[in-house]
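Below is the data:
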Amino acid sequence: MLQALLQNETVIRLTAFFGMLVIVAGAEILFPRRRLTVSKLRRWASNLGIVFLNSALVRLLLPATAAGFAAFAANRGWGVFNYFSEAPVWFAIIASVVILDFAIYLQHVMFHAVPALWRLHRMHHADLDFDVTTGARFHPIEILLSMLIKFAVIAVVGAPVAAVIIFEVLLNATSMFNHGNLRLPPAFDRVLRQFIVTPDMHRVHHSIEDYETNSNFGFNLSLWDRLFGTYKAQPDAGHEAMTIGIRDFREPKLASDLPGMLILPFRGRVTGYAINRREWGGKS
C-alpha cells in the first residue's frame, strides 16, 4: 500500500491540481466576485509559469518529495507517530493533517513577521488581481524554504505517508479555492467559513491595506485565525471596491510578468507590511 501511494503520488497530485484548477476557473467565469484589472492571459501565463518553474526546481534541488521524506522518516523511526507506533492509523493521519495545517498557518505568519521573508512572500501579494492562479503564485526561494519547513514538521510528527499526500492535495486544492474570484451566496459563505477558509475570507488578506493584509493567514482550516486573533470578517472597503496588491508594486510589468516577479524580492526596501516593522500599525 505504501509503495503504491509513493509510486502514484505524482499522478494523484497532478490530477487534483488540474482538476481543481479547471473547476474553480470555470466557476469564476459563471460567478465572478470582482472585475479583473489586468489581462487574464498575461497574468495566467506568469502565474502558471512560476508553478512549472517551482516544480522543476524542487525536483532538481531536493532529494525527495514531502511524501518520500515521510517514508524516509518512517524507516528510521523518526517522529512521534513512528515512535508510538501503537497509535491507530486513522488517528495518526487525522492528527498529522491538522498539525501540518497549523504549521502552515504559523509559517505564513512568520513570512509576514520577518522582513527578509516578507521580501520573498510579497511576490505572492503583488498580484494586481485575485483569482485561482494567485493561489499557486509563490517565489521559488519561498517554495524551497516552505518544503524544508515541511520536512522538519514531518520529521518531528512522524506523519504517515498517506497523511502527507492527503495534506499536499488539500493544501493545493484549498489554496486555489480560497483564492478564487468567486461569488458565494452570503449565507453559504458564513456557514462554510466556520470550518474552512473561503474566498471572501482570504481575499481580505490580499488587501492593499497593511492591517488587512496582516489578517486571515489560514489556508485550509479557518479556526487558527479565530483562535489566535488574526481573523477579520470583511474588508473595510467591501470586496468589490477594495484594492488588491501592495502599494510598492503597482506596475503590471513588475507585478504580472514573470521576469519582474522573480526579481521583485530584491527590489526596494521592506516597508510597513512586515508585521514587526516599527511603522506598522492600523485598525483592529
Notes: The mean pLDDT is 93. The chain has one domain: 2-266.
